[in-house]
Each structure stands twice: as C-alpha cells, then as structure tokens.
From TrEMBL:
GO cellular component: MKS complex
InterPro entries per the UniProt record, alphabetical: TCTN1-3, TCTN1-3_dom, TCTN1-3_N
Superkingdom of the source species: Eukaryota
GO terms, biological process: cilium assembly; protein localization to ciliary transition zone; smoothened signaling pathway
Domain spans labelled Tectonic-1-3: 241-384, 398-581
Transmembrane helix in keyword set: yes
Residue ranges of every copy of the Tectonic-1-3 N-terminal domain listed in the record: 113-221
Protein name according to UniProt: TECT2 protein
Family: Belongs to the tectonic family.
Gene transcribed to yield this protein: Tctn2
Bilayer-spanning residue ranges: 631-649
C-alpha cells in the first residue's frame, strides 16, 4: 500500500471470527517474517483495524493514524524524512486459536508534498522572449560561483573581473543577446557599407530587432469593410417568383424545409435543407438513446408563389424489422425499453413549372428497443404533374448532377438496361456485392474482391473476371438525355467497347501455378457530355459518347507460411469518369489570329500597351490629379535610384 488506508474483504460467515492486525518486522539476517498468532488486537502502533460485517462478506479496513507532514524545525508528530512509513503488517482472521485467513501488507508511504503555509500572490513574470531573451547571460554556467571570462555573471565581484578584464566572451554567449543590427542608421560596425547607406537605413529602437526572429508589434488598424460587400442573409425569405433548380424549399414560417441528409464527411445531418429538383436516397444509423424526431409533418410548404400547401401524410407499420435493425445487443425482453419510432420516410413532390403542386409523404413506423441499432431511410423524389411513370422531370429534358444515367438494350424485346457499379458489403467479396446505378456527373471508383485458388486456370480466370465486369453493363446504348424515348433511336448513343487483350495465343506460362498475366481486372467507363443550352435558366446537359475499356494486371498467388489449399484474393475495380467537352468544336485559329493574340490586351495578363494606363484620362479609379502626382513621385524615385547607383555618387558622398 502507498496511501494511509487500504480495504480488503473476508469471504464467508464472520460470526465468531476475531480480526487482528500485527506489526511483523523481518529478521535482519534471514529476512523472514515472524510467525503471528491469534492473540493480537485491532490496534498496533499507528495502525487501526476496522471490520464492517455483512451477510457473506465482511469489509476489512486498515488505516494509518499518524501525521504525514514533513517535519519543520523543532516540530514533533511528523515525518523526519520523505519516506515516512516503511513497515510490514499482517491481518489475521481467527476462530479461537485456529487461523482462517491471513493478509500480508507492505506499507511504503511518503510524506505529503502539499504546502500548507502562506502562498505569495506575486507571480513570476516571464518576459516575452521575442523581445527580451530569457537567458540574458548564457555564459553563466555555474550556480553560486563566478565563471571565468563571463563579464555578465552577477556573482563575479569587481576584483575577480579585473583578472580577466579585456578577455570577456564576446557576442551572444557573453551576454550581448540583443546587438544592434546592420540596418540601423546609428550602426557604425558594418565592414562593408552599401552605396545606399544611410539614405535607406532604419531608424528604430533596439526593441524592434530582427535578431530574435520577431519584430515589435506596433499598433494595428482595423480594416474597413468595402461598401459593395453583400450582407449575409440569415433568413431565407418568402418566394414569389417560383423555385429554380437547387433552391432550398421554404416553409410557411420562412424557414428551410429540412430532412436528414448525408454530409460530405459521411455523417447524417438532421437539419439539412431540401433542394428543388434534387432527388436523394440516404440511410442513417441511430439508436433509441440518440433518436430524434424530425420536422413535424403538419408544417405547410411554400409552393414558390407565396401560396402554401399541406403535406399529405400516409402512415404504415413495419412488420419485417430485419431490414432495418442491423445490430442488437443481448438484453432480457423484460429489461429492454421499446418505443414507436420512424423507420423510413418517402417524400414525393409533384411539380409544375417552378411551383410545387402537391407533397405526398409516406411514413413507415416500427418499434425500436434499447440496445438495437436502426438504419433509417429517407428518400425525396420530384415528379412532373404530367408524368405518369415517375421518370421525367418537368420541362427539364437534360441530365442533372446526381441523377442515374439511363441505359437501354435497343432492338430487344425488353429495352430496359442498367449501368451500375459495385457497392461492396461485409468482407467486400464479389459474391456478396450489390449494385448501385452510375450517377450523372459523379466520378466513381468501386470494386470487390474475387477469391482465386492456386490451381486456377488462367483462361477460366480471365473469362470469370470479364463476366463479372460485364455484369455491371447490361445495356447496348446510353440515353443522350434524361427523357430519352425507347422508341426513338436518335435519343441514344451506342456504347463503344474496347475488348480486353487476349494473351492466350502468344504468352505461355508453362507449368507455373498461381501466375496469370493480362487479367482484365479494371473496367474503365468514360462518359463525354456537353452543355447544349439552357431552359428557364437551368443548364441542359447531354451525353455525347460512352466508351468502355479494360486495364490488365499481372496476377500472382499470395500465400503466407504455406501455399496449401488456401485462397488468394484478386481485386477487380470499376471506375467512372465524366469528361466535359465543348458542345461544338472551337473555330480553328488562323496564323494571323495567333500572332495578333500576343498584342491583344484583352487576352493577356501582361500588356505593355497599358503600362501607363493609370496616367491616362481613361482611368477613373482615382482623380486625375492624384494619379498625376503619384506618377511624378514614382518617376522622381526611379531617377533618384539611378543617380545613387552610379560610382561617382559614392565618391562624392565620401568627400
């Protein structure tokens, strides 16, 4: 024990049991403890023994009664040294003369280091080392004695300093920690004086010195806010002209209509505004302890023209909770606290032009118990008032960022196609990976892991990998626009496929196992698009071409301590890149235009023709008189610098 109190427990019935504490000094020769008997008491020396009986357990407390303060001069009842107590104790539990249990305690207790006297309120002020060095005499290395040749040592008497007067340490080590710098006008220690000195010298005190690395912090001026700064809008305000794409939807109280959404960091934000014509489908993890209710469904929504509509809410009950409950701790059913919460919400906005005509909300409710983790789902979908199949946005035929890219199988009985990438789950194996659609304007990179054995045939492996990659693209054409019609072939562009290189005929691996070259493990999807116009201020983007290619890798079996019947992993990936190109090819420049660009001030950052533009009448940034005065002052300084740079001026100044 290292403190004045220690606790232990005696297990069993303590009725009729006598407890005692005994000091047991060890034998100085052998170091063995003395044999203790049951005739002790509950107090010995400075130690007390307290027993708190219980049903089947008794608490035994051994405490020290002496003072642990260090001794002051002429003081008693204190600790003469920092190590105050160093003793060995034995605690015995006996029934009669029979010893039932023994506890051995080695006490090593130090004196209290806390100061109990009067504390002075005068704090030591450490100067700022940027201007006042903390070590004003670096050569003072010996405490209480005079250091030879250290003239700044205050412990050196004048008689001792006469012994080494004239041989003191120079510079910083000798105490000159803040020497005058060369740029000072009063400095005369410069060996090589430049020609401009002292016309361009610094007139300052030694507090403003670059020797320590910092300059003196003088007065600062508060910058003035420009008059053209737009004040921050704290409230959204009421709309009268309708919504545009991306505008936040407003409620009747002039607040944002919010639904939980996913942030850039991957976390769910509960008060994220909903943007007009921006669909999303997100999932958020929560528990019963952290669950919070969202925006009430009775809140009325601004249609965009200062009118308000009520949400049409439909409530349903979740029967299969397994799709939403991802984790569950083992709690007793009687101990678990359950509550009826929202499992999912699906919002459908019916739009017409720039207005919202109707809002339908489907709420899925279920029971969430303590210790369970709930995966909430929130979806928002904007539909046209004229739409019947839920695929076409009103008067917005072009693609919008974040919308799925449409795919089709032209000339097939079922023209519906898919263009997906992987969405791995669990261990990331391809066998358990799901698919997610390719979103327009969103560059993506995903993949999964394929299990491969050491005896895998290279031809079968290439075919298996190619089949896995081709399963992502179940289409022959891609829609140019978001409202491309299956019946119009001109609304679609054909997918250009660059098949992987087959090396079976010209590359031989012999009898090597676990080694296969030219495995098409990477699928590259390049989608070229362009802005072909705008409709009601909304840019219309159209897909021009789609190319699919493969990148090959060299696969080699990776094994640990032994290469038995273990499996190796081959990662296969799929990347999507959107490339924006001009809607029309740029006009080819002639030789005359290429030469003329060098003299065109509108196409160059540096223009010699506008060197004296501030001195002309066309410059209106300042009054002409001020511009002329500044120009003449600048010309005078340039002329003065040219005159002072001549050698004859230096000779004239020295005379």
């Amino acid at each position: 024990m290292s403190g004045p109190r220690v606790n232990s427990f005696f297990l069993g019935n303590s009725s009729g049991v006598n407890f005692s504490v005994i000091l047991s000094p060890g034998d100085e020769e052998t170091g063995k403890l003395q044999v203790a008997n049951c005739s002790g008491s509950k107090k010995t020396g400075d130690w007390n023994l307290d027993v708190t009986p219980g049903m089947n357990t008794s608490k035994v407390t051994v405490s020290l009664t002496r003072n642990l303060e260090l001794c002051l001069p002429n003081a008693t009842d204190c600790c003469p040294s920092p190590l105050c107590v160093l003793e060995t104790l034995q605690v015995l539990a006996c029934r009669g003369s029979v010893r039932l249990a023994r506890l051995l305690i080695q006490a090593e207790i130090f004196a209290n280091s806390s100061f109990a006297g009067n504390v002075s309120e005068n704090a030591t002020i450490i100067p700022n080392q940027a201007f006042r060095p903390l070590g004003s005499c670096p050569c003072n290395l010996t405490a209480g004695a005079c250091d030879v040749r250290c003239c700044c040592d205050l412990e050196c008497t004048p008689d001792l300093k006469q012994l080494f007067d004239g041989s003191c340490f120079p510079g910083v080590f000798g105490g000159d920690v803040n020497p005058p710098f060369d740029q000072l006008c009063s400095s005369q220690s410069m060996e090589y004086t430049p020609e401009w000195f002292p016309f361009l010298c610094v007139q300052s005190s030694l507090d403003n010195t670059p020797f320590l690395g910092y300059f003196y912090h003088g007065s600062t001026s508060t910058p003035k806010v420009p008059a053209f700064t737009i004040p921050l809008q704290t409230s959204p305000g009421r709309l009268f002209t309708g919504y545009s794409q991306g505008d936040p939807i407003i409620t009747e109280e002039d607040d944002y209509f919010t639904i939980p959404q996913q942030s850039l960091a991957g976390q769910c934000v509960g008060n994220a505004p909903v943007g007009y014509l921006q669909d999303f489908d997100i999932k958020c993890l929560t528990s019963l302890e952290s669950y919070k209710e969202g925006l009430p469904h009775h809140v009325r929504i601004n249609t965009g023209t200062a009118d308000f509509i009520q949400q049409n809410v439909t409530c349903r009950t979740i029967t299969d909770r397994g799709k939403f409950i991802t984790e569950s701790e083992s709690l007793h059913p009687a101990e678990a606290l359950c509550q009826n919460v929202t499992f999912a919400e699906h919002y459908t906005f019916i739009c017409k032009d720039k207005e919202i005509e109707e809002v339908n909300v489907t709420v899925f409710l279920g029971s969430l118990c303590g210790g369970e983790t709930l995966t909430q789902r929130f979806t928002v979908e904007f539909l046209s008032l004229k739409s019947t199949n839920g695929e076409e946005l009103l008067e917005n035929p072009g693609y919008q960022v974040g919308k799925p890219v449409r795919a089709a199988n032209i000339n097939a009985s079922d023209p519906l196609g898919t263009l997906n990438i992987w969405q791995p789950a669990g261990r990331g194996l391809c066998a358990s990976a799901t698919y997610t659609p390719v979103l327009f304007g969103v560059d993506s990179y995903s993949g999964c892991v394929l299990e491969v054995g050491i005896n895998e045939d290279c031809s079968l492996l290439r075919g298996n990998v190619t089949e896995k990659l081709n399963s992502l693209i179940q289409a022959t054409h891609i829609g140019k626009r978001d409202n491309s019609s299956y019946s119009d072939p001109d609304d679609w562009v054909e997918i250009i496929r660059v098949e992987p290189f087959n090396s079976d005929t010209n590359v031989s691996t012999g009898n090597l196992k676990g080694f296969c070259p030219d495995i098409p493990a990477n699928l590259n999807i390049h989608i070229m698009f362009a802005e072909v116009g705008a409709l009601q201020g909304i840019p219309q983007q159209q897909i021009l071409a789609v190319q699919i290619s493969y990148s090959t890798v060299l696969w080699q079996f990776q094994c640990g301590l032994s290469c038995g019947n273990s499996l190796s992993f081959l990662p296969i990936t799929a990347s999507v890149q959107f490339i924006k190109v001009p809607a029309q090819p740029p006009v080819r420049k002639t030789r005359y235009h290429r030469i003329y660009v060098e003299f065109d001030c509108n196409q160059n950052d540096v223009c010699l023709q506008q060197l004296f533009y501030p001195l002309t009448r066309f410059y209106t940034g300042e009054p002409y008189s001020q511009c002329l005065a500044k120009g003449l002052l600048l010309a005078f300084l340039v002329l003065l610098a040219v005159i002072m740079s001549n050698p004859w001026f230096s000779k004239l100044w020295n005379r």
